[in-house]
Amino acid sequence: MDRTEFINQLKKLNTNEKTTVELYHEISSLAMNYGLSGLKKPAARNAYYLSIEFLIGRSFFNNLLELGVLEETRQILSDKGIDINVFEEIEDAALGNGGLGRLAACFLDSAAGLGLPLQGYGIRYKYGLFKQAVRNGFQVELPDDWQRFGDPWSQRKEGEKRTVKFADMTVTAVPYDMPVFGKRVNTLRLWQAEGSAEAEKISEYLYPADDTEEGKILRLRQEYFFSAASVGELVEKHLKKYGKSFGNFSEENAIQLNDTHPVLAIVELIRILTAEYRVGFADACEIAQKTFSYTNHTVLPEALECWNAELLEKILPEIYAILLKLHLKQKDELTKLHCTQEEISEMAIYASGNFSMANLAVYIVHTVNGVAKLHTDILKNSLFRTAYKYYPKKFQNKTNGITQRRWLMLCNRELSELIDRTIGKNWRTDISALSGLNPHIESIADEFIRIKTEKKRQLFEYIAQHEGTVIPNGFIVYSQVKRLHEYKRQLMTAFAILEIYKGLKDGTVRNFQPSVFLFGAKSAPSYKRAKAVIKFINEIADKINSDEQTNGLLRVIFVQNYNVSYAEKIVAGTDVSLQVSTAGLEASGTGNMKFMMNGAVTCGTMDGANIEIVELSGRENNYIFGAEVDEIERLKEEGYNPLELLKTNELHRYAVSALIDGTFTDGGTGCFKELYEALTVGATWHKPDHYFVLHDLQSYVAALLKINADYTQRKAFAVKQLKNTANSAYFSSDRTIKEYSDCIWKIME
Ligand SMILES: *Cc1c(COP(=O)(O)O)cnc(C)c1O
Predict the structure, then answer these.
(1) Which of 488, 531, 569, 695 is labelled catalytic?
(2) CATH assignment at residue 514
(3) Which of 59, 669, 670, 706 is an S-S bond match for 153, by CB 3.0 to 4.6 Å?
């Protein structure tokens, strides 16, 4: 089926008396036929992206856009009296949790767009991440049955199923292929576990609770399951083509490990080669080395995965045996390099009963990369400093990116058309052309303001529908939307809002432009403090929104079930992007890039990709505050006393005391008191306020107020916003993927 045929069939489609879901299936199926008839060129060398998450969002609009038929489809449906937006009823495929999973989805999009052979491998969870509701201010987790509308974008490949073996069970891995359309058609292959009720559990939930032995085993099974199915398939393909000579395996296969979850794929490749095809251990290790590369996504110690040796031995005895051999091989090699005992233990794959997946990856792979300049420097100088000392050439930086197709063209048609009118359409295929906007910024600022106002109106309408809360037009929109985590410091924003609120009440904050603070965030189900922060924000929202003395000036909204589709609305309708992590802890961030591209200024710390954002769009066009990495390091060394700040700063005392003085209720759970103590007393595992919330709070409030004051010069502020859009091309994942492709994968169009 070609394009004309697709259009003709769509025109002929009888839409009378069909439900939205029926139409969704018919149109999706037409688009699949059209898309899949595009060349599926075999490539001499493929790269494979192994990721435990792919946060795809809705496929419908994006696929039509990628196939170049979105506008015609919109028009044809409109002629039939159907608004294409009705398909927003079909919910997201949320097979991911946050930035890491969305990055994987953006990468697939960009590679297909560039015509590069990158295929994805992951898990087809029955339920994605939970659906979040807020009841009585608390997060409630509901199952996310994303397939209840059907899944017209996947094809089950019955004939290509595989077997994955554990000591105590055998599981069938059935592939479901989702095409990724672009200049070429690539495939995201998601494995579904079948065979028994026990087996099915493996692909039931993303991140099942792992605070019990049983939970840990399930996670281990998930990680091995999709790693083994994927690697097993690649080996089999190679075998069919070349027989049992694996010397050239890495010439055709480049495997990227997205964080540590798929690291067992390395061990599985070595296992298959040595156990099934009699390749020598050293040769197998060399093949693995040439094949694999690893992306680190976090420096938080609690997120660096380790697997208990006994558990591994019980569930995956062969893998365990190979891990031990790798450990000995490493020890041997490091001794020959004259590493000290201390250095050896820092890099050790195995230590005190645990295997470190990060150390294993760093030892084996040919390339380790961080995801923003600062993050890669931290890997080199801190987290992996010893490995960097001995293997400096392994380390590279690949600053993250986002696909401008979903995150600008699709979510902000109005701004995209303004860009078309100003510099032509070339930027749509070559994003670097976007910088051509720079000389025109002054002349399009008024039109930009009109568009931003419209995108805010659309966002407010969506929020009114979904949250039942009305935001008056004309408000400045400050947004902090991302996973809920202490290091991301949503709590600091909550305190800042309380301080501004107090200032409005007592008249110390004057000439304040009406503003709304939007939050969207899911907390891990077992993360008590994060859940307490959600409740705290909702308590603050209730109080402030119902205060008639100030609610014409200040509102707070916590949106429920923040996901990709919500993000598409929020990034387009935001003026100020809040990116306020403790310096050194946000590896990159990608939300920050989406906002920048849509013309929001960043109010943030010098962390992750924020640094590169202000480098490119100009520090004067953004609002940077707070301690930088050096200062945080110094504070950690010299000691930091948040109690001193509370003593001397009355506003801080007011905001923080709100946790315990009865202003708000935590429903008798004690969770607010626990937050208070985390800040003021600490806990067995950390010092008081170990994310330096109170340290940065004063400069944060000042930055928020400065933004508010600057906004009164609406046009000058729009110029700052447009400077961000005009200089955001670097943050296209097209650029990131070109870099991976040129410097790590060596794949070609
Ligand atoms: C982009 C995105 C993220 C990542 O946001 P950060 O601010 O970089 O943490 C998380 N969730 C969703 C739904 C996203 O679209």
Answers:
(1) 488
(2) 3.40.50.2000
(3) 59
